[in-house]
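=== RUN LOG ===
request id: a7f3
mode: sequence -> structure
chains: 1
length: 178
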Amino acid sequence: MAWSPSPATTFEVDTVYTTIIIKSAKDGYTPTGLANNFFTVEGSTSVSTEYLAASTAVIEAEFPETVSFTAFVAPTSKTYIAATAGYTAKRFTIINTGTGNLANVQASLGIGADFVISAALSAAEINAGGAATVSVRLKTGLALGTHTDTLTITGDNALFITANVSFTIKTAPSGMYM
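=== RESULT ===
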C-alpha cells in the first residue's frame, strides 16, 4: 500500500489522501468476472480498480480531507475574588480551533467537593470555529480558606482540556452580618 501524498510520520490536516492497494490472488485464482470497482475501502470517498495480468488488481482509494480536533478553554484558570457571601458563577468558554466538529463534549469537576457546575455545558457538539460555555460556582457553607478544583472538558477524538478554579473565603469584617 502506498499513500499520496506520502505522510512523513503523521497525516497532515486539511489534506486529501489517496492510497494504492495492490491485491494479488492466490495461486490458481483470478479476479476474472469481478466487476470494475468491485472492491470497497472503508472511509474512502471513491474507489477505482484496474486489473493487471490475470491475478492482480490495483485499487486506488481517495479519502476525504483530514480534519483536526483541537480546542482550548478560556480562561485557563479562574481565581475568584475573596468574599464572605454571594458567590457568583464564573463562565468558561470552550472554543473549537480545529477543522472538525467536536462531539460528545462534557464538562466535569475533578474533586467536586467545593464547586458545582451551575450552568451545564451549552452544547454537546461544537462545530469548527464554534464555542460552548459552562459555568462553575463555589458551594455555600464552606469553611474559611482557599478552595480549589479542576474543570475538565472531554469529548470524542481524545479531547481533554483542563482549567483550574480557586476561591478564597475570608472572615467577614467586624460589624458585618451575613
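=== NOTES ===
The CA atoms of residues 32 and 54 lie 7 Å apart.
The radius of gyration is 27 Å.
=== END ===
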